[in-house]
Every structure is written in structure tokens, then in C-alpha cells.
Write a structure and sequence with these properties.
Blueprint: H1 2-29, H2 35-47, H3 63-69, H4 73-86, H5 90-108, H6 113-116, H7 124-143
Amino acid sequence: MFWTKQKKDEAEIEGMAGKVAAEAEGLYRSGKMHCAEAVLAAIRNNFAPQVPAEVVRMASGFGGGSGSGCVCGAVAGGTIALALVLQEDKKQIAALTKELHKWFKDQYRATCCKVVTQKGKEGCPLLTGNVAGKVAEMLTVTLK
């Protein structure tokens, strides 16, 4: 019985992560949003739909490494999304942000946009989806 519940929980987490990842990637590919906006919008849509859509504009300055090419905009958007959903739990937000950065660095070697996009931004749509999916996974587990 426990094994079945565990598999069901894992499937639920993977399903939500996949749904959010696909949505964020689609938003990025549409050309209407950059990485940070797409991650934040997909998380908002699925975890905090009561929050006005205009909040996504808060991430508009974070694309392309905040204009300086430093912290990846998708990671910045994910960090904003964690705070949007978890609100006042600053310790949890800080812990999950640290986990997100570590995961991203393990996946992409660096959190710096300039480093990750050194050979071009062709990988950004998928990367954006992956970050949104990871944030959705983290939130689904945390909110259980």
C-alpha cells in the first residue's frame, strides 16, 4: 500500500512538473515572454492563479541575466516564483532558492547567463521549461 501511494505521489509530482515545464517553454517560444517571465507565469498559473497576472511584469528586468548577463533569468524567475507561492516563509524560500541554484549549476555548469549561453541562446526555451519544472516539483513536494 505504501509503495502504491509513493508511486502515485511521484507520478503527481512528475505530472505537475511536466505540465509547468511545457507551459513555460511554450511561453518562451511564443516570443511574448523571456525566460524569467515565462517561469514566473507558469508557476503563477498553476500554483497561485489568484495572484493578478500583472505580477509577471515584476520579472521583466531579469531576462538575459538582468541585462548584465549574470544570474540566469530563468533562475531569477524561479526565485521570484518561490516567494510568490510561499509568501512569508522566508526560511523555506531561502532553502529552496539555494536548492534551485545548486540544481541549476549541476545541470548547466554555472548560474551565469553569459556562461550558459556562450554558444548561443538556442537552448534557452528548453532550459526555461526545465527550471519551471524543477520549481514546480519543489513546490509540489513542499506544499504536500
